[in-house]
Amino acid sequence: METIKQLSHIPLFDGLAPEYLQDLARIVIEQVINRGEQIFADGEEGKGFYVVITGRVKVFKLSPEGKEQILHIFGPGEPFGEVPVFAGTSYPANAEALEKTKVFYFPRKAFIELIRQNPTLALNMLAILSKRLHRFTALVEDLSLKEVPGRLAAYLLYLSSKQKNNNELTLEITKTQLASLLGTIPETLSRILTRMSREGIIKTDILGRIQIIDRKTLEKLAQGEIRLSNSNL
Amino acid sequence: METIKQLSHIPLFDGLAPEYLQDLARIVIEQVINRGEQIFADGEEGKGFYVVITGRVKVFKLSPEGKEQILHIFGPGEPFGEVPVFAGTSYPANAEALEKTKVFYFPRKAFIELIRQNPTLALNMLAILSKRLHRFTALVEDLSLKEVPGRLAAYLLYLSSKQKNNNELTLEITKTQLASLLGTIPETLSRILTRMSREGIIKTDILGRIQIIDRKTLEKLAQGEIRLSNSNL
DNA sequence: CGTCGACTTGAGTTAACTCAAATCATGTGG
DNA sequence: CCACATGATTTGAGTTAACTCAAGTCGACG
Questions:
Q1: Do residue A66 and residue A165 come from a single domain?
Q2: CA of A199 vs chain B CAs: smallest distance (Å)
Q3: Does A8 map to a domain?
Q4: What confidence category does residue A55 fall into, taking pLDDT thresholds of 50, 70 and 90?
Q5: Taking a C-beta distance cutoff of 8 angstroms, is the pair A27, A77 a contact?
Q6: Which end of chain B is more exposed for a tag (fewer CB within 10 A), N or C?
Q7: What distance in Å separates residue A220's CA from the closest CA in chain B?
């Protein structure tokens, strides 16, 4: 069946016996969310978690004044909203579709039953949560110990490694969203991109495409070994 | 045996059949770490995780310039350093004893074997990692969306709820460490405590004891609904 | 009682923010 | 296919929260 095939492509379910995929197919609920629609809200009670099938989802926090901090952008194959399933708490952040997105929803009770019967599934989930924790420590480090140019440099290098296109990368999100992901605002991001270009570190094409000219310097920036000079004039 | 009794008091092992506690007792390694000694380092390969038995451990990140961001302070019964066990990566941060500390060390391979055989243990671990993720989202929110007075207010309220002593609380760490936990520096923390005292929100005894005078205002500060006025003179 | 780290206070600097405004990009309805 | 509406982006000007550097005080412990 189509659903089972899709389930089998989800890393969380790697190594699962076919019978368990069938069990999963029985409990899963497919949903389509339009661009800009909310999937769940910070503080809302959570009765299950999601896996992105197609499209993209941003998970974010909001301040009372409306400033947004993106915690993570999830793409196909990635699960999100698991925290309340296992911690028995509410969702710790908001989730919204960045584009038309298809997700699978797994109700808590049935999923926990499956985990009880299947140690591989438990270990896969433990691995995913652990990796998420690892990423979060990096995010905290960025926000607390690095300046915005360093965070941007780290992000560009990350994108460059994810996309193979040697030294030529494409921002897959708007600069406004990137600013929110980096814990800053669009104006600041824009100015720093300008500075990096002027320093000959990167070259910005139109349309969110960026070339890395001086990777060494970018790496030093990301490590906090050097700072971007103040070419203010 | 003594070890089994100590294991039974660890929340991670709640609900485990006695036979599994015996299994755990067989694989566990006891260690004593002196104040200031490092337990593991950021980036080091991890072959197991720890549980605090007595004492306290800080887990933290360091910037190249030596600034420190504390991610978490762990006390008796709390596990730490689990990420590499399940994600197969290195430790994502540094760990150091704040005082003389006894820990149990659980080697990765043996522990994963136990998890395979015991769904309750797996679910307990999933719950703990999920709660940790929840806390980290709060930390990111604090660092990115709140000013230092708001973070401090939130921390004081948290301490007040943890300690029962109505409106009278004791910092269990030095103010320098608190500064690092809040993502700031001692000078800034000191100034903000002074401001809060001058505003009549709190009263600082000598010796790290603090009284909450105006809880309402403290709560609004923590929520970011108001800001601390600039009584600069 | 002296030493060392913790804490406080002052003075000056700065990275990043807010506010404002202009420009560009995209897409929709006519 | 064009004109406008909406949102993204850039640039300028001014402000500020928090930082750095410096110096002095306090407090606990050997």
A1: no
A2: 23
A3: yes
A4: very high
A5: no
A6: C
A7: 11
> Is 90 exceeded by the pLDDT of residue A134?
yes
* Spatial separation of the C-alpha atoms in residues A200 and A203, rounded to whole Å: 7
- Does residue B200 lie within any of the structural domains? yes
What CATH code is carried by the domain that includes residue B217?
Answer: 1.10.10.10
Comparing alpha-carbon positions, the chain B residue that sits nearest to A89 is B131
Inform me whether the pLDDT recorded for B231 exceeds 70: no
What is the tens place of the pLDDT at every residue in B22-34? 999 999 999 999 9
Phi, psi angles (nearest 5°) of residue B200: 75, 25
* Buried b / exposed e along A76-112 (16+ C-beta atoms within 10 A): eebbbbbbbbbbebebbbbbbbbeebbbbbbebeebb
Angle at A97 between CA A93 and CA A99, to 5 degrees: 155
What does the alpha-carbon distance between residue B202 and residue B195 come to, in Å, rounded to a whole number? 9
Number of H helices, E strands in chain A: 9, 11
| Nearest by CB: A139 against B62, B131, B140 | B140
- CB neighbour list of residue B154: distance below 8 Å, 6 or more residues apart: B142, B146, B222
Task: Give percent of chain B above pLDDT 90.
Answer: 91
Burial pattern B22-57, b for ≥16 Cβ within 10 A else e, equals: ebbbebbeeeebeeeeebbebeeebebbbbbbebbb
Is this model's pTM higher than 0.85 or not?
A: yes
Tell me which amino acid residue B56 is. Answer: R
Question: A-chain residues within 8 Å CB-CB of B117?
Answer: 119
- How far apart (Å, rounded) are the C-alpha atoms in residues A197 and A156? 13
A181 with A89, same domain? no
Q: Domain residues for B44?
A: 2-132
Which residue(s) pair with A61 in the sheet? A69
| Alpha-carbon gap, residue A40 to A18, rounded angstroms | 31
Q: How far is Cα B19 from Cα B12, in angstroms, rounded to an integer?
A: 15
